[in-house]
């Protein structure tokens, strides 16, 4: 059916678009799988006022001992 009036056109457009947006990451995961992309790298974020240098030094030692580069 081709809309011929404004009311029909608006009804058609409203039927094409969902009223709610899915905010989860499931859609992103589905697209990632469909594109057959490599897994994303692991990221560790260290934040705060004090101790970032010490935490990074500890993490580096632990990860290097575990074979990470």
Structural summary, described in words:
- The protein is built from three helices and no strands.
- By secondary structure, it is mostly helical.
- The protein has one domain.
- The chain is elongated and about 70 Å long.
Task: Give a brief outline of the structure.
This protein is mostly helical and 69 residues long. It contains three helices and no strands. The chain has one domain.
How many individual β-strands?
0
Can you give the mean pLDDT? 90
Radius of gyration: 24 Å
| First-last Cα distance | 60 Å
Shape summary: elongated
Please identify the structural class as seen in this structure: mainly alpha
Given as residue ranges, the uncertain stretches (5+ residues, pLDDT < 50) are none
Main features:
single chain, mainly alpha, 69 residues
Lay out the secondary structure.
Blueprint: H1 6-16, H2 26-34, H3 52-65
């Amino acid at each position: 059916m081709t809309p011929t009036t404004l009311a029909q056109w608006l009804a058609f457009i409203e039927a094409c678009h969902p009223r709610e947006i899915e905010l989860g990451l499931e859609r992103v995961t589905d697209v990632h799988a469909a594109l057959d992309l490599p897994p994303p790298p692991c990221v560790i974020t260290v934040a705060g006022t004090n101790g970032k240098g010490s935490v990074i030094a500890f993490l580096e030692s632990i990860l290097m001992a575990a074979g990470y580069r």
